[in-house]
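yo

u said u wanted the structure for the complex thing, so here. seqs first:
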Amino acid sequence: MRWIRFGRDAAPRFTAFGMLTPADRGTPEVTIDLPALCGESPLRFRRFDRYGELGYAAARLALRAHRSDGDLPPVAGEAADMDRGVILGSSLACWESNARHQRSPRDPAAGEASAATFVRTVANSVCGDVSIALRFGGPGALFAGGWTAGAEAIIAAASALAERRARMILAGGVEAPGPELRAMHAGGGRGDAQAGRWFTGLLAEAAAIAVMESADEGGAGPGSLRLFACGRAHDPDRRLSIAALLDAPAPVPLGTVVIANTMPRAFLDRAREEAAPRPVIDLPDRAGELGAAGAPAAAALADGLGGGEGVLVVARDIAGGMAALVLGR
Amino acid sequence: MADEHVAMSAAGRQVVVTGMGAVTAAGHGVDRFWRACVEGTSALRRDPRFATGAGAAPPVGVAGQTLPAGEERASALALRAAEEALRSAGFTDRTPPRGAGLVLGTCLGGAIAALEWLDACGAGAVRSPGPSPFPQPGGLAAPALHLAARHRLSGPVATVSTACSSGSVAIMSAADAIRRGESDVMLAGGVDALSSFVVSGFVLLRALAADAVRPFDRRRDGLALGEGAGIVVLEEAGAAERRGAPILARWLGGGTALDAHHMTGPSPGGDGVVRAVTAALAEARRAAESVDFISAHGTGTSFNDRMETVAFKRLFGARAARIPIDSVKPIVGHTLGAAGALEAILCVRVLSEGIVPPTINYGEPDPECDLDYVPNQARRVGARVVLSTSSGFAGHNAALLLGAP
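structre next:
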C-alpha cells in the first residue's frame, strides 16, 4: 500500500463534526427527533427519505458545531457557493427507497409508484439533499464501495482541499439500512453462514459528517485535527497487518489505533499484540457497526482524545476494502 | 507488503490512457461502438420486456445479448469491457501489475440482483429464493468487486455513484489516484444494466422519448435508456512509456460540481456544468479557447439540452458556435453510469481518428439550441483537446478534458 502524505503545513483540517448514532445499543435506529435537533420545521424534512434525513441532519449539526450555519444562504435565491462541496460515502445508500420503488407496482402497502420515490433511488441523493438545502455547489461525489466508503470520501475531500478545488467540504458517511435490510445483511433472511461469521451485531443507522477545510483556511483553529496521511488497498485476504500500517508517515508519534469497523476476533487480538503498548479502540464494540459512517466517527473519536499524539484509523470492509487515515494535531 | 510513502506533491505526475474496452447495444468492443457512432447507426429497439402499462414498449439499447444467463448482468458487462481494455493496453495476460486499482461508476451496480431477491422473498412467489445476496454479490459495489477479484487488483478499489455522471467521476477519481501517487495503473469507467426498475422509473418521470431520440432538435421529447460498460486503463505516463504501452490520449484535467438546485431538474443557467468545466480547465491549465470538440451529455430531454447549450455559450462565448458538439445517446441510448465512460472512450477515438461522430435524428433546429451539433453526418476535425460533460440526478456534474498523445 502506498501512503499519501500531505505534509505538516498542507494537511487538511477537520474543524467540526456532526454525529448521529443510536444512543441505545439495543436500538439500531436513531430515535432522536431530527427536525427538533436541527431547530427546523418538520415540514422541511418531509422532502427527504430516511437516508436524506440522516445526511442533512448530520451536515447541519456539523455546520452548527463549526459555527457557520448562521452564514448559510437562504434555500432559494442565492447562487450556490462553488468553494463548498459535499463528498459522502455509504455502503447501503438509498436501499429503502430502492425497495419501495421495486415493490410499488404490486405491493399496495408500499404505496403507488411515484416519481418522487424514483428520484431517491440514486445513491447520491443524499449529496443532492445536502447540497440543495445548504447551497453548496462545489465538488461532489458519493462513494459506495462498502464500509470503507466514508474513509474514501474523506480521502477524496482531502485531495480536493489540498489542490485548492474547494475551501470547505462536508465529508463523511451515512447509513440508513432500515430493519429489513439490516436483518438480511446480518444473514437473518436466509441464515447466510458467511455473513453470520462476520456480523456480531446489527448494522446501525448512522451519519457522521465532518467539516473539512484546507490547511490555510482562516476559520480553522491551530489545534484542530488534521489528516497527515492516508492509504487504500484491496486486501480481501487481510494480509495488511496493523504493524505495517503503524509504519505510516506521521509527523507525530502514533499513540492510538482506532478500528472503525467490525473485525473478526482473531484479527483484533493480533492487532492489539502488534500495536502494544498503544491502546486499540474497537469502535464497533463501543458504538455498534456504523458501516461507512465508521471511519468519520472514528475521526470524531480521535478529535475527542486530545493530546499531542497521532491516531491511526483503520476502516475495513468484509469484501476486502481497506483504508487508513493518520490523524494528529 | 512493502509500504511506500508518496508526498501529495507527487501530484505533478502525468496520466495517460493506454487501453479501452466497451460493451454497448452496438456490440462488444470499442470498434463496434465507434463504427456505429461514426456511421450514425442507432442500436435502439423496442423491447417488450420493458413495456409498462398499456403503452408501447419504449426503445432501449440492449447490450451483450450473448451474455450467459444467470450471471449478474452489470458485473458481466463490466468484466467483458475490462478484459478488452487490459488486452488493448498490452497486458496480454489480463493481469495488471501489483498495486493496480479500480474506480467504477454506476447507478445501481449489482443492486438489482439484491432487489429481486428481496422482492422474491417478500412476495412469497418464490419458495426458495436462495441465500441472501449479501455481502456478495449484491449491492452497488458488486461489479467492482468482481473485477478486483478477476484481475487480482491490490490497489485502491472504489465504487462511485453520482447518477448519470458516475462514469466520468470514476475516471476523474482514478486519474486523481495516479496523480497523487497512490497507484501507477488504474482501471476506470462505468457500468449499468437495463432493468424494469429503471425503465419504470423513467416512465414515471415522463422522461422517455416516444420514438426517436433527438438531442438538441426542436422536436425532442425525451431520452432512451441503454445499458453497457466502458472501461479505460489509465497509467502514470512515465511507467507507461517505460513498458512501451500504446499511448492513446493524455489526461489533462477533470472537475465536478454540484448544481445545488433540484434533484432532477438541471440548473437552467447551466451553473453546475460551467463550474465543472471551469475546474477541469483549471486543473489542465488550459484556456477555454483550446477546446476543439465537446461530447455533450445530450440526453434529448428539453431541459438538459437547453441547459447545456446555455452553459457552453457562457464558457466559450461567441466561439461556442464554432465548436463541434455531439451526442451519441441516439446511437446506444443513455447508459446511465456507463455514459460518461463511453463518451470518454469516444473522445479518445475522436483524437486518434480525426473524425467527429454526428448527432443523428437532427431535423428541426431549436432557437434555444443554436450551436453546431454536427447534424447527421460525421465530420473530419483535427482535434487536439476534447471535452466530455455529464450531468446526473441530485445535481452532480462532471467534466473531463483529454488531449492528443
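The CA atoms of residues 13 and 179 of chain B lie 5 Å apart. The longest helix of chain B spans residues 73-88.
cya
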